[in-house]
Task: structure prediction
Amino acid sequence: MRAADESKEPPVTIAPPLSPVPQQRPQAEPRVNPRSAPTTPVLTVDLAAVGGAYRQLRAALPGVDLYYAVKANPSRAVLDVLRGEGACWDVASPGEIEAVLAVDPDPARISYGNTVKKPADIAHAHALGVRRFSVDCDAELDKLIARAPGATLLVRITTSGAGADWALGRKFGCDEVTAGRLLARAVTHGHPVGTCFHVGSQQRDVTAWDEPLMTTARLRAVVRAHGTDLAVVDLGGGFPAHAADPTPDVPSFGRAIMAAVGRYLGPDVPPLMAEPGRGLVADAGTLETEVVLVSERAGRRWVYIDVGLFSGLAETMGEAIRYRISAHRDARPLRGPTGDVVLAGPTCDSVDVLYQQHRPRLPLDLRVGDRLRIHAAGAYTTTYSSVGFNGFAPLREVHR
Ligand SMILES: *Cc1c(COP(=O)(O)O)cnc(C)c1O
Result:
């Protein structure tokens, strides 16, 4: 509705207002440079940083083939960069195989690392030339023996997930006794075999690889007793992003892991691979988001932004991944005193609250229209964005 003093038309109301309707003074519209302030929410991925992360991890893990876990960020531009660096691929579905083959036609460079696969998808992958599959139970091994003859089978052992902010152990892996049986069965059916494990994502303890490598050494004895040796040991993923909590640097992980490899698998170390996802792409991504509302609820300051649990920040579930966040106005950092906030997404769903226990600190004068930058957000964001829950668009991604 137009304000009374702007209207040149005769009023249609019966009683004209006695005094001008008090104009609710809107907050000043932020003056934004459209080039430095893109439409939010948007994830900007620095492709040079992806290449740099790959080279750094490669240097830290000498002799280890790196299979990029595509689910972390499957965008074509990211796959192209990693292809250029010489990466191999860890995939979980026919869709990911297709995405990878579009940038790298060699199916021998693909590992089908999902332990839960439809029989038809195994057959399809095998027909395309994929020759490396993961397994953690007899029923899945039955499928692989039937549909992936001759393929290398990696038996996934369980890990505690200790030290990781995003543990994976409850859904995947098997105990040592089961692993020994699966390895023996696979060997008996003529498969080359290996072991694999995942120490949990956003792993912040450099010694987390020790225990599964120790288990691998004992399983190696089982395999050797069947007249062969491990064709590969897969060190999995887990390498952390630079989130809010401090993490050791990549060389520290490399030193600890390679020392454990030597200790438990040396001197005759089997071929090694790893499946980094987050560690290659997270730090390269910055998610820019706009402050929609700042309000006071039950004595706490709530900040609502235009990205949430359904539009890319699924890993804040249980406040597991705690991002670094900075505040900006007119493309400049907001300085000044800060206070803690509850941070929430924009949808009409009460679970769409990002942080309530972990209390990010944001400037006290933060207001509607300011920008928050969520750092190290290049992994597990665009792919976790829903198709548009509650009418909020999926998270866009751009590259520089
Ligand atoms: C997701 C996944 C990875 C990547 O894990 P990050 O913690 O992102 O490095 C590696 N391997 C498998 C089997 C996975 O499912």
The chain has two domains: 48-281, 283-399. The first strand starts at residue 42 and ends at 45. The CA atoms of residues 373 and 390 lie 23 Å apart.
